[in-house]
From TrEMBL:
GO molecular function terms noted in the UniProt entry: phosphate transmembrane transporter activity
The name this protein goes by in its record: Phosphate transport system permease protein
Task of the protein: Part of the binding-protein-dependent transport system for phosphate; probably responsible for the translocation of the substrate across the membrane.
Xref: NCBIfam families: phosphate_pstC
The species this protein was found in: Methanosarcina spelaei
């Protein structure tokens, strides 16, 4: 009995230690980012950084305006959401509720393999295949545009959205579906009025994780968006070259002098990206809890 209690206490303290370690690591990441990021404001003001329209870190009159990078990330991510969310949820519904079990078992491994493909491979595919298609169909000087980046990010986010949404839909109790059908509802009415609302918590989590994948992606966007740090116009901005926050950090961090204003400006960009991702996770958690409450 004493040995059993000792084992339980050991497991409990191990899990507690891992949880504390996770919090400590997150705190250290925040400290690391914000410590170096805040130093940029010794040479530029907060408002100039947040509202500046130009990113010229190496010119004589250096400017570290975040807006071109922020709007570049925003338009690419928005396009990826528009592309991936409807397709991902529709595919999850098909696999879970409509497809023959043999077809579903055939599709699932391919979706999981798609999630494991390195981002640089997606970048090569976009550069060789999608960029010429966009250029020729829209008669553009270059196919490296925000639209190309949105499509590629949408493809990369699809496996996450499909897999988690399919798990959420499959976990809905069969009694709900059977009760709906017994009351005279059709299969489609049962899907969109009973099953999808019951699984909305998991579906919303899948969408948010897909958005997080899109926001944090770097290599693919470096290869297919053109890396032009200008504020895109809406809606025509989808056909313009843009540069995202992640691509800016990846492109410039390797060559920037350590301790320079440019160096700290890149850390400030990373801090903004961290805050945006953190807020998205908070919103996702809030939505998840709200719909869990409604379903329960």
């Amino acid at each position: 009995m004493l040995s059993r209690n000792y084992k339980e206490k050991t497991i409990e303290w191990t899990l507690f230690s891992v949880s504390v370690l996770t919090v400590v690591v997150l705190f250290l990441i925040c400290l690391f980012l914000f410590r170096d990021g805040l130093l940029v404001f010794r040479d530029t003001s907060l408002m100039d950084f947040l509202t500046g329209k130009f990113w010229y870190p190496t010119s004589v009159n250096r400017q570290f305006g975040l807006l071109p990078l922020f709007f570049g990330s925003l338009i690419v991510t928005a396009g990826a959401i528009i592309f991936a969310v409807p397709l991902g949820i529709a595919a999850a519904i098909y696999i879970s509720e409509i497809a023959d079990p043999r077809i579903a078992d055939f599709l699932k491994p391919f979706i999981e393999i798609l999630a494991g493909i390195p981002s640089v491979v997606f970048g090569f595919f976009g550069l060789v295949v999608l960029v010429p298609i966009i250029q020729n169909n829209f008669n553009l000087p270059t196919g490296q545009t925000a639209l190309t980046g949105s499509i590629m990010l949408g493809i990369m986010a699809l496996p996450t959205i499909i897999t988690i949404s399919e798990d959420a839909i499959s976990s809905v109790p069969s009694t709900l579906e059977q009760g709906s059908l017994a009351l005279g509802a059709t299969k489609w009415q049962t899907i969109y009025k009973v099953i999808v609302p019951a699984a909305l918590s998991g579906i919303s989590a899948a969408v948010m994780l897909g958005i997080g994948r899109a926001i944090g992606e770097t290599m693919t966007l470096m290869m297919v968006t053109g890396n032009t740090a200008v504020i895109p116009s809406f809606p025509g901005g989808f056909l313009a070259s843009v540069r995202t926050m992640t691509a800016t950090i990846a492109l410039e961090m390797g060559e920037v002098p350590q301790g320079s204003t440019h160096f700290h400006a890149l850390f400030a960009v990373g801090s903004v990206l961290f805050i945006i991702t953190f807020l998205i996770n908070l919103i996702a958690d809030s939505i998840k809890k709200r719909y869990q409450f409604k379903v329960d």
